[in-house]
């Protein structure tokens, strides 16, 4: 029999072993594999950032000459008020498409300052709920000006809800309704309207595998800590929802198959998979959201990823459209293309293992109402979580791991099965340009005021939360 002292001793040993294990997990999650370091490029020094900022301030980037030639067509851009869709609208106008030949389908008007003046003001706007077939049909049926009514029609589908940390089956109905059902509604309406090109924005997150965060103490690094973003998964059967790191990539994978499977002669379809974080306007999550905060908590300052500027995503869509209109379009249609173009308010560094533990607690708390009795009763009595903490869930550790993509396939010439894609700005230029734009939007504030009176933007995450609260999506559970 163990004495009381023995139990106390074994208790101390158990606690020490658990703490030692957590320290080891924290070490593993804090590492950067050597092969990733070699791919990450040179560091951005304060001097380099300053010189780039001054150069862009004096000589703004003009990439109009890199846009594919103007096509005599009319356009519908779903999500045209947002990041990628907004850049598509601006690029269509820049290459010569009359703004009256463009229609935005979105649930709200844009907050982008670069779309609130000039020709962009003349673009038609149809407030649309893509989860409703009637709403989509009404938006497609709106009359076009006489100069555009008889032109062939292209659709750029960029609308989606992005909540990357959710992975519970109980919360899948919402992204499914927008990303899957919404895409199906748009495809049906496009076919009925005689659309000949349907180019959709997918996501490279579809290919991400869940990171094995809780690993053996002797493991060199967590499982799938470093991943290459590609399209090999597209050649395989769709996984079950639980086979993805979260509900967002699961829903985008289903939507991507819907788009690509719809490809046929006279109705060419395909998708573009931008690599991980898309940035490029103060309304984005990647750069704009941190700029709007006085303090930015982070546990991923060591993580290396391939990000992409919204302007690069947009021009890839224009190249995609041109490829789908080629006589040999069958070699470019019905398939996805993945590509990228490689962030630091004051940051507050936090231990990864602490955030991992908290993420599991947050997920459990939010799932309480769906668990068996008595947890379900407790979940209905406790107040719901508010603010950013509700997004801290284990799925973040898969999308916030080392992720590298390549432009090799999409940059190939059309004759070799690529799109002839060429980016219009580097990551350094794109991120500095966004900081420059953010500063211009806060020029009316003094130095001290900028720290306390930062403009609040509606990011894709906050917009998704608003849509979810206002939506009518039922509580059904997906397998």
From TrEMBL:
<keyword id="KW-0472">Membrane</keyword>
<dbReference type="InterPro" id="IPR002225">
    <property type="entry name" value="3Beta_OHSteriod_DH/Estase"/>
</dbReference>
<feature type="domain" description="3-beta hydroxysteroid dehydrogenase/isomerase">
    <location>
        <begin position="246"/>
        <end position="346"/>
    </location>
</feature>
<comment type="similarity">
    <text>Belongs to the NAD(P)-dependent epimerase/dehydratase family. Dihydroflavonol-4-reductase subfamily.</text>
</comment>
<dbReference type="GO" id="GO:0000252">
    <property type="term" value="F:3-beta-hydroxysteroid dehydrogenase [NAD(P)+]/C4-decarboxylase activity"/>
</dbReference>
<protein>
    <recommendedName>
        <fullName>3-beta hydroxysteroid dehydrogenase/isomerase domain-containing protein</fullName>
    </recommendedName>
</protein>
<keyword id="KW-0560">Oxidoreductase</keyword>
<feature type="transmembrane region" description="Helical">
    <location>
        <begin position="7"/>
        <end position="23"/>
    </location>
</feature>
<dbReference type="InterPro" id="IPR036291">
    <property type="entry name" value="NAD(P)-bd_dom_sf"/>
</dbReference>
<dbReference type="InterPro" id="IPR050425">
    <property type="entry name" value="NAD(P)_dehydrat-like"/>
</dbReference>
<dbReference type="GO" id="GO:0005783">
    <property type="term" value="C:endoplasmic reticulum"/>
</dbReference>
<feature type="domain" description="3-beta hydroxysteroid dehydrogenase/isomerase">
    <location>
        <begin position="76"/>
        <end position="206"/>
    </location>
</feature>
<dbReference type="GO" id="GO:0006696">
    <property type="term" value="P:ergosterol biosynthetic process"/>
</dbReference>
<dbReference type="Pfam" id="PF01073">
    <property type="entry name" value="3Beta_HSD"/>
</dbReference>
<keyword id="KW-1133">Transmembrane helix</keyword>
<keyword id="KW-0812">Transmembrane</keyword>
């Amino acid at each position: 029999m163990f004495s009381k002292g023995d139990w106390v001793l074994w208790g101390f040993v158990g606690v020490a072993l658990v703490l030692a294990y957590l320290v080891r997990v924290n070490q593993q999650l804090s590492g950067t594999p050597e092969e990733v370091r070699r791919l990450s490029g040179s560091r951005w020094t304060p001097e380099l950032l300053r010189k780039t900022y001054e150069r862009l301030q004096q000589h703004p980037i003009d990439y109009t000459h890199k846009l594919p030639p103007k096509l005599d067509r009319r356009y519908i851009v779903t999500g045209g008020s947002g990041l990628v869709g907004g850049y598509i609208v601006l690029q269509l106008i820049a290459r010569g498409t009359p703004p009256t030949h463009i229609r935005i389908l979105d649930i709200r008007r844009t907050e982008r300052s670069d779309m609130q003046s000039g020709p962009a003001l003349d673009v038609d706007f149809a407030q649309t709920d893509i989860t409703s077939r009637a709403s989509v049909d009404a938006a497609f049926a709106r009359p076009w000006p006489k100069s555009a009514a008889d032109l062939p029609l292209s659709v750029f589908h960029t609308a989606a809800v992005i909540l990357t940390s959710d992975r519970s089956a109980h919360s899948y109905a919402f992204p499914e309704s927008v990303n899957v059902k919404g895409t199906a509604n748009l495809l049906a309406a496009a076919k009925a309207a005689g659309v000949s090109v349907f180019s959709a924005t997918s996501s490279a997150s579809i290919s991400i595998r869940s990171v094995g965060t809780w690993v053996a103490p002797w493991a060199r690094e967590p499982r799938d800590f470093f991943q290459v973003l590609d399209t090999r998964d597209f050649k395989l059967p769709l996984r079950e929802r639980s086979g993805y790191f979260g509900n967002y990539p699961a829903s985008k994978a289903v939507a991507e198959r819907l788009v690509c499977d719809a490809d046929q002669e006279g109705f060419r379809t395909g998708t573009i998979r931008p690599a991980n974080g898309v940035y490029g306007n103060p309304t984005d999550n990647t750069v704009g959201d941190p700029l709007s905060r006085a303090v930015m908590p982070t546990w991923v300052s060591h993580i290396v990823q391939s990000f992409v500027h919204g302007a690069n995503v947009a021009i890839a869509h224009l190249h995609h459209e041109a490829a789908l209109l080629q006589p040999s379009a069958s070699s470019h249609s019905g398939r996805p293309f993945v590509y990228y173009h490689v962030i630091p308010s004051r940051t507050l560094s936090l231990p990864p293992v602490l955030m991992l533990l908290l993420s599991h607690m947050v997920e459990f708390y939010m799932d309480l109402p769906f668990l068996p009795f008595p947890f379900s009763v407790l979940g209905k009595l406790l107040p719901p979580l508010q603010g950013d903490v509700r997004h801290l869930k284990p799925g973040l550790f898969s999308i916030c791991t080392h992720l590298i993509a390549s432009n090799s396939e999409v940059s190939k010439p059309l004759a070799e099965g690529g799109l002839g894609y060429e980016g219009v700005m580097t990551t350094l230029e794109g991120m500095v340009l966004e900081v420059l734009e953010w500063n211009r939007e806060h020029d009316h504030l003094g130095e001290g005021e900028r720290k306390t009176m930062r403009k609040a933007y509606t990011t894709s995450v906050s917009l998704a939360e608003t849509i979810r609260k206002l939506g009518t999506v039922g509580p059904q559970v997906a397998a």
